[in-house]
């Protein structure tokens, strides 16, 4: 039986135990540890029997953090000099989950072995993602403290924190990770299109979370009906107004990308802002501001069009990003946001989104942000002529 088949046959809660047995038998491993990134992407949490007794590792420092941020396997000689530690990124279709750490006898981590272990880590990541439907073990391991109820609802709504295909790479981040209420991002891909939304539900806490949940559900329902982007906005607008009568509404940016041509259809229904990096040039893509979803009854929405070229980077930010002020009253979106965008141009979309939120927290002067902050970073590669539609693993 293949290693992948053994993982698939394992009970959802027993994936780590099964992985440890497989790698002990087939690779001579003496230790196997699954480390999952927490919600704030600050640490890598070991998965084991609850409550956890092993200490987490930094997500951006040390060998585990380096492997996680660079998405490349890393091998180091252990302190005992008799073993080696291999750190293997666990990523599922562009969504970075964490690291698999494997201890091997000294000299055993050959290039071929590390490549085989990397493939195994990917297979394990797919099984962890599937197991989340049936067990809370991995979800609980991702948190360093309890989430608020509003945050629990928002994280369950998300498609992930990243997505990758041949045509694009997406990295996204939410803060305050353990208490987010109204901000959300969503995406869906098909053979020829990518639809992406950034939503900022008004209010705070559970009220904002309920509003955003209805918004995202209404948009998904409309999108899955196969209607146009403008009509998706119209139907979501009607659903929100029917529920709240205009007393609560959601600011939403809707984008649909043609993967072949780079043509983007957009509906700006509120306050999320969109920036483009082309080479060293940073520009805000100005769209016609239309009314937020649910503000008035039967609001008509119109689509606008722009194009992206291979090498372009798009960054969508919610109100809690571009409208946050420092203690001196300076808006983050006026100067610092552009500085961070320029400084992270060579970083991956995942790291750029994380750095933007880190810059926002530094600008604000506290981890306790006054408003939710959502950042979505997309690197556009485009589709070469004749290139088939396919997804990355």
From TrEMBL:
Domain PPM-type phosphatase, chain residue ranges per copy: 165-380
Xref: Gene3D superfamilies: PPM-type phosphatase domain (3.60.40.10)
Keywords of this entry: Hydrolase
SMART domains attached to this UniProt entry: PP2C_SIG (SM00331)
Keyword Hydrolase listed: yes
One Pfam short name: SpoIIE
Transmembrane segments: none
Protein name in UniProt: Phosphatase
